[in-house]
Design a protein that fits this description.
This protein is of the alpha+beta class. It contains four helices and ten strands. The radius of gyration is 52 Å and the shape is elongated.
């Protein structure tokens, strides 16, 4: 006999909802399953070394704790040019005659005329270091200042320059100053000060000094002639 029992079917909307839930559950299960079987992506790690608070990549040489010492460069040698050597003048006496004896000294190649003359006068104030020559300049005399100006060479000496000796000694020391100051320019004029004041009288006998004075004035006033070598 045919079963004519009336079977109920769920409404269409409920059926669609059930299908959607089933599909969603299946997708979630598949995603979790894939994550479980897939290996994690590798992550790159770069180890670092901490050196005095700063990170540097491994493989670099670690700096030493001691500072690196850099040697100082050698001091440059001061070249000397014989052609620019300075000249100073000593004395040799023959009776009452004052004779000048030139002596060469070396000066740096880059020295100005004022620098070279200062070197010459420094040696002159120290007195001769060889036999056969002398100086009329008192030992205590000091060079206070020296400059080369447009009107000539200005030399400032201490008061000791005016002390001691007779006329020959006074003329001799004056000649030493004039000739040494004009070593680079024989025709130049020389202005002589003593303790900053112009020298007008020299020595107890009161030798009158021109201001300025030249080599020609020395020959005219005191009979001092240039050395034979010049």
């Amino acid at each position: 006999m045919e079963d004519k029992t009336n079977r109920r079917r769920p409404p269409l909307g409920i059926a669609i909802a059930i299908i959607a839930i089933a599909l969603s559950a299946g997708s979630a299960t598949a995603w979790f399953t894939w994550r479980a079987i897939s290996p994690p992506a590798p992550t790159a790690e770069f180890p670092e070394l901490e050196i005095e608070g700063e990170a540097v990549p491994e493989g670099f040489d670690q700096p030493t704790a001691e500072p690196i010492e850099v040697p100082d460069p050698p001091a440059p040698e001061v070249a000397v040019n014989p052609d620019s050597a300075g000249t100073l003048y000593w004395l040799s006496t023959d009776g009452t005659t004052v004779a000048l004896n030139p002596a060469s000294i070396e000066v740096p190649t880059d020295a100005t005329d004022a620098d070279a003359l200062t070197v010459a006068f420094s040696n002159l104030m120290g007195g001769p270091d060889s036999e056969g020559v002398a100086t009329g300049i008192p030992e205590q005399t000091e060079l206070l200042a020296l400059s080369v100006e447009s009107d000539g060479i200005h030399v400032n000496l201490s008061e000791d320059f005016t002390l001691g000796g007779g006329s020959a000694s006074m003329i001799g020391r004056l000649a030493q100053v004039i000739y040494t100051a004009t070593a680079f320019d024989p025709d130049a004029s020389v202005w002589i000060d003593v303790d900053g004041e112009p020298l007008t009288l020299l020595g107890g006998e009161g030798l009158e000094i021109r201001q300025p004075m030249t080599r020609t004035d020395l020959a005219t006033d005191f009979g001092v002639e240039a050395p034979a070598e010049e």
